[in-house]
Design brief:
- By secondary structure, the chain is of the alpha/beta class.
- The protein contains ten helices and 13 strands.
- Strands 3-4-5-10 form a four-stranded parallel sheet, with helices on both faces. It has a three-stranded mixed sheet with strand order 11-8-13.
- It catalyses: UDP-N-acetyl-alpha-D-glucosamine = UDP-N-acetyl-alpha-D-galactosamine; UDP-alpha-D-glucose = UDP-alpha-D-galactose.
Length: 321
């Protein structure tokens, strides 16, 4: 297995700490290249060195709010970087891809729960969503032009949590952009309080509702997609929702995290954030039908594993152990 990544902690010539942790957990060596997908020549060199049968494409920027502030950066990194990858894959006759997409391509939901037949690309609320939508369109065009391509597009809802060992978790640069790591940093004392963006949505308590998915369930979804891809003679581009099918509000997440951590989570209600919708949760039945996958872990487990990671590594991977 080869990992290509641009931004990870680690000194010159060293493997990033998360990769070392993966090696400890699995007992296997991981080949790792720290490159930028915008660097076409370096990407080509890696494909020249190795014979790949399939690619799982996670690389990109992912903060919704930030994408409204620096949209061009999101288009450059996410879209242009992806095009480079697809070109190099084509040149090396690697035509099987699992792509990390997002539920944000659905925009403001027209109905709930969201199925894969829900319209995409309409009234998209931020640059991040648009970048994922554009990449999906490129992949559809690629598959239509060459029937040898087989692409599984995984539309994530809201991945959270950490490895149950507490040794692998989310370590954002600077102030977290997403709810769960932000709550965890408040609980551990790194940040004084949490801003809750809006309490006037048409939801159970007025705060935004999302389909939170444990990162381990998400990882297992990718394994299922890869196994399907390697065993199947299918072709074309297939979009699949990955979520639990349950929606939880911001306040429900805060309350559950407070219960698990036994810490009071201080928060302040502020105005709505640009790029957010009120509710988003999925119908994940197609994932079970096509991949044999379904989410198993509860919101409580998501909070427990996040707290285990954050309490063991309060400063993330830079924490001295």
């Amino acid at each position: 297995m080869e990992f290509l990544n641009k931004n990870d902690a680690g000194g010159e010539g060293e493997k990033p700490v998360p990769i070392s942790q993966v090696e400890k957990l699995t007992g296997k060596q991981v080949t790792f290249y720290a490159i930028d997908l915008l660097d076409y020549n370096s990407l080509t060199e890696i494909f020249d060195k190795h014979e790949f049968c399939c690619v799982i494409h996670f690389a990109g920027l992912k903060a919704v709010g930030e994408s409204c502030i620096i949209p061009l950066t999101y288009y450059q990194v996410n879209v242009c970087g992806s095009i480079n990858l697809f070109l190099v894959m084509k040149e090396h006759n690697v035509k099987r891809l699992v792509f990390s997409s997002s539920s944000t391509v659905y925009g403001e939901p027209q109905f709930l729960p969201i199925t894969e037949s829900h319209p995409v690309g309409q009234n998209l609320l931020n640059g991040y969503a648009k970048s994922k939508y554009y990449i999906e369109g490129i992949l559809q065009d690629l598959c239509n032009s060459d029937k040898e391509w087989f692409v599984i597009i995984l539309r994530y809802f809201n991945p959270v949590g950490a490895h149950s060992s507490g040794t692998l978790g989310e370590d954002p640069n600077g102030i977290p952009n997403n709810l769960m790591p932000y709550v965890a940093h408040v609980a551990v004392g790194n940040i004084p309080n949490l801003n809750v963006f809006g309490n006037d949505y048409n939801t159970i308590d007025g705060t935004g509702v999302r389909d939170y998915l444990h990162i381990m369930d998400l990882a297992e979804g990718h394994v299922s997609a890869l196994e399907k891809m390697l065993k199947s003679n299918d072709s074309g581009a297939i979009a699949i929702n990955l979520g639990t099918g349950n929606g939880y509000s911001v306040l429900q997440v805060i309350n559950m995290f407070s219960e698990v951590s036994k810490r009071k989570i201080k928060y302040e209600i502020v105005g709505r954030r640009s790029g957010d919708c009120g509710s988003s949760y999925c119908d994940a039945s197609f994932a079970k039908e096509y991949l044999g996958w379904e989410a198993k872990r509860t919101l409580k487990e998501m909070c427990e594993d996040t707290w285990r990671w954050q309490s063991l590594y309060p400063q993330g991977f830079s924490t001295k152990t």
